């Protein structure tokens, strides 16, 4: 397949899915419900959305600062401003092609600090592995706190049998790839193995670095800020302001998964949030409005910070 066509599909298909979900959500509601949602938007307390955005900026800054520890352990230095800008650009790029932000982050440091791409990318993968375990911890917490509600939701929306089939196929494919990498002498495979060794070095640097404690402290700050970003936003609407901690954790987990597997949650985030909140007797119109307000504010923040980072990085790194 032509490379341009692949790139177009990589960008276009997720966006089309998001557009479909937007129209699907819109067409679900009657004219009266749409008017009700319009009232929610107009009467929302956007002061709490501003507070939510502050927590989001804290998480971005802490993620940029945390990155320095794994980079310095490998003998590389990057200024905080470059790390922070790279993180913001990475989040912005994830709105185009899912998970492309990790590549963008490493490319920024390669351009402005001459840090080898595979080493920088390895540290990012290490971060993602750690973040994945933390997200799994949140998922388990949500399951414990809200088991009955989540059970009914998952059994009604997730095709369990299909997931099992995909799981078996994935395991088989993984075994084939591992065997191929161990025994193959094909030059492209050897080239990839050499690059993977750089990734592994970056991954292991996290567990060997002398600054493990501050690294973990910043990890905690990042995830606490994520939760507080969500928590502050629930007060924007009276209908969501009384939900308990268990509901907040559950909705936060579902929202995080929606963002992870789509273009920044476009279309999926408000839909999934609304479906979760319905389980707790919050009107679907209010839940959908809340999801769109939070998603839109976070997207606007990412676009603003990512765009400014693109513009300011060449200026801030201009050679004198």
UniProtKB/TrEMBL annotation:
InterPro entries: L-PG_synthase/AglD (IPR022791). The chain crosses the membrane at residues 7-26, 46-65, 129-147, 163-183, 215-237, 243-261, 289-316. Its main location: membrane. Keywords: Cell membrane, Membrane, Transmembrane, Transmembrane helix. The keyword Nuclease does not apply. It comes from the Bacteria. It is a multi-pass membrane protein. It is found in: Cell membrane. It holds the Pfam family LPG_synthase_TM. NCBIfam families: flippase-like domain. This is TIGR00374 family protein. It comes from Flavobacterium saliperosum S13.
């Amino acid at each position: 397949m032509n490379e341009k066509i692949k790139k177009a599909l990589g960008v276009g298909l997720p966006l089309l899915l998001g557009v479909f979900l937007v129209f699907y959500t819109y067409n679900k509601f009657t004219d009266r419900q749409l008017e009700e949602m319009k009232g929610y938007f107009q009467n929302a307390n956007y002061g709490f959305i501003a507070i939510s955005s502050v927590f989001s900026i804290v998480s971005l800054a802490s993620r940029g600062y945390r990155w320095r520890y794994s980079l310095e352990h490998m003998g590389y230095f990057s200024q905080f401003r470059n790390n922070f800008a790279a993180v913001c650009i990475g989040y912005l790029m994830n709105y185009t092609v899912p998970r492309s932000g990790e590549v963008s982050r490493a490319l920024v440091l390669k351009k402005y600090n001459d840090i080898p791409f595979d080493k920088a990318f390895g540290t990012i993968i290490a971060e993602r592995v750690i973040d994945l375990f933390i997200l799994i911890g949140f998922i388990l917490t949500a399951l414990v706190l809200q088991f009955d509600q989540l059970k009914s939701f998952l059994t009604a929306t997730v095709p369990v049998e299909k997931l099992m089939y995909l799981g078996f196929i994935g395991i088989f494919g993984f075994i084939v790839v591992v065997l191929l990498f161990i025994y193959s002498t094909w030059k492209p495979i050897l080239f990839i193995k050499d690059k993977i060794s750089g990734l592994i070095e970056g991954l292991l640097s996290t567990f060997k670095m002398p600054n493990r404690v501050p690294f973990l402290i910043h990890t905690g700050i990042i995830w606490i800020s994520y939760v507080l970003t969500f928590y502050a936003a629930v007060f924007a609407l009276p209908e969501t302001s009384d939900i308990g901690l268990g509901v907040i954790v559950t909705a936060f987990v579902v929202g995080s998964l929606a963002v992870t597997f789509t273009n920044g949650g476009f279309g999926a985030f408000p839909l999934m949030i609304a479906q979760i909140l319905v389980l707790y007797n919050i009107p679907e119109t209010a839940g959908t409005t809340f999801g769109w307000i939070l998603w839109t504010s976070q997207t606007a923040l990412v676009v603003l910070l990512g765009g400014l980072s693109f513009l300011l990085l060449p200026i801030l790194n201009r050679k004198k």
